[in-house]
Design goal:
233 residues; alpha/beta; seven-stranded parallel sheet; five-stranded parallel sheet; 4 helices; 12 strands; elongated
Length: 233
């Protein structure tokens, strides 16, 4: 069984496979005890494949065994190819939306006149390795949301409007990711390209921060205990 959806719910068996990989890694000296404890805790708290996969991404898969988590890793090669489910979108005094699991045509045109549109590429597939998206917004707006690792080039022009890229623009693109060129014109309107994490990735980072805060708090308590013991000697 394979899955390309990082937000698919993880099973108890998948959590246990990840935990076993972590135990092997600490035994081989690939992880120190602090890293092991943090990842093990995150593994048992994980709710989705997207939460589990980063915990073993930098660890080797034992020869002759399946991946510890079947299908959570979003490989770009698995998201390239197949017939397009949409090659364009249009709105006039209204709106359009393309989000979730959909396949972007190699040439996609988005047009809005006194309306709005939304395109979310974070879970999308791509018909070809290179995709050109033409965005034309006249007295309206188009919002394009992309994952941080996607190779995106923004070439649009704003006339009495804006054609902007924002949010994690310093993130390095994944060399295996498809190339997406977003170009076009915003006339008395706006086109915004935003790099944004998925909900699953946000949850994983939040759990890591919480775990790190708990670990620092415990270390702080240990230091206070040692000071009290030293002061009473």
């Amino acid at each position: 069984m394979t899955s390309e959806l990082p937000e698919m719910r993880a099973s108890d068996a998948e959590r246990e496979r990840v935990a076993e990989r972590l135990r092997d890694a600490v035994a081989e000296g690939r992880l120190d005890m602090d890293e092991f404890e943090q990842r093990l805790d995150a593994a048992y708290r994980a709710r989705t494949h997207g939460d589990l996969e980063p915990l073993v991404r930098d660890l080797p898969v034992p020869a002759g065994t399946a991946s510890a988590v079947e299908g959570p890793r979003t490989t770009w090669s698995g998201r390239i190819g197949g017939p397009a489910t949409s090659k364009g979108a249009f709105s006039f005094w209204g709106g359009f939306g393309r989000r979730g699991s959909w396949t972007v045509g190699r040439r996609f045109t988005a047009f809005t006149l006194m309306g709005g549109g939304e395109m979310d590429l974070r879970e999308a597939r791509f018909e070809d390795r290179e995709t050109v998206i033409d965005c034309i917004a006249i007295m309206g707006g188009i919002q394009v949301t992309v994952p941080p690792g996607l190779n995106v080039e923004v070439r649009g022009i704003g006339l009495m409007g804006g054609f902007d890229e924002h949010g994690r623009v310093d993130a390095s693109p994944d060399p295996e990711a498809p190339r997406v060129i977003i170009r076009g014109l915003a006339l008395m309107g706006g086109v915004g390209v935003e790099r944004k994490l998925t909900r699953a990735e946000k949850q994983r980072l939040k759990a890591e921060r919480e775990r790190e805060g708990e670990r620092k708090l415990m270390k702080g308590d240990d230091r206070d205990d040692r000071k009290e013991l030293g002061g009473g000697a």
